[in-house]
Amino acid sequence: MKKIIKNIFKFFLLLLVAGILFIAWANYSIKNESASFVSYNIKDVPEAKTALLLGTGKTLSNGTPNAYFYNRIKAAADLFKSGKTQYIIVSGDNSTQDYNEPEDMQLALIQQGVPQDRIILDHAGFRTLDSVVRAKDIFGQTKIVIISQKFHNERAVFLAQKNGMEAFGYNAEDVNKYAGLKTNMREYLAKTKVYWDLLFGVEPKFGGEKIIIP
Question: What is the CA radius of gyration of the chain?
């Protein structure tokens, strides 16, 4: 009986080690492959008709302003004003009536001087995968500039390229490393899940009719 328990313990220990190694490899692989396609400098960003702004809530659970949100808004407005892009798809979660990331982003961009008719709303961007793939399948974009923080852009650009898109990431300013500790830890698992999604051909939660961007 002791031998059986010992063998079971060894099996789960090996499984744990394999899992840790896979997480480390997945994160290294995605960061390495996307490294030359993400930048904090607008001068590095190629021209593209459309940018994709990835959503997040404008406030945290405690009601305080979310720095991730406002830094992304500033980056998107700066990019648009530079002339590198003509339209911005704002893609985020609108799963409940009182939570609407796309409309919050739209309003914030308008306040930053981006014309409303240059902002396209995608209310079904529940995950990064959904936002990226829908930009191609629903909005017909095969070349995009993705706007988010660097850690997020690495994953989004990688996903876009694996789905046959030409993608570049413009990095919004990050937040204090301690304030963003939980988000950065969660990102390790999110990057790992990318390979699961690719392996099993996971698709966006919602499809829909195609929307033409002029």
Answer: 19
Compute the distance between CA of residue 34 and CA of residue 105 in angstroms, rounded to an integer: 26
CA dist., res. 177 & res. 150, Å (int): 13
CA-CA distance, 84 to 66, in Å (whole number)?
Answer: 26
pLDDT tens-digit series, residues 140-193: 999 999 999 999 999 999 999 999 999 999 999 998 766 667 777 888 889 999
Give the whole-angstrom CA distance, residue 47 versus residue 197: 29
> What's the rounded Cα separation, in Å, for the pair 160 and 166?
7
Element (H, E) at 14: helix 2-34
**Nearest residue to 149 (alpha-carbon basis) of 171, 128, 168:** 171
β-bridge partners, 119: 88
Residue 169 burial class via C-beta count within 10 angstroms: exposed 0-12, middle 13-18, buried 19 and up: buried
Global confidence as pTM: 0.91
Mind giving me the DSSP string for 55-117?
Answer: P--SB-TTS-B-HHHHHHHHHHHHHHHTTS-SEEEEE-B--BTTB-HHHHHHHHHHHTT--GG
**How many angstroms separate the first and last alpha carbons of the chain?**
71
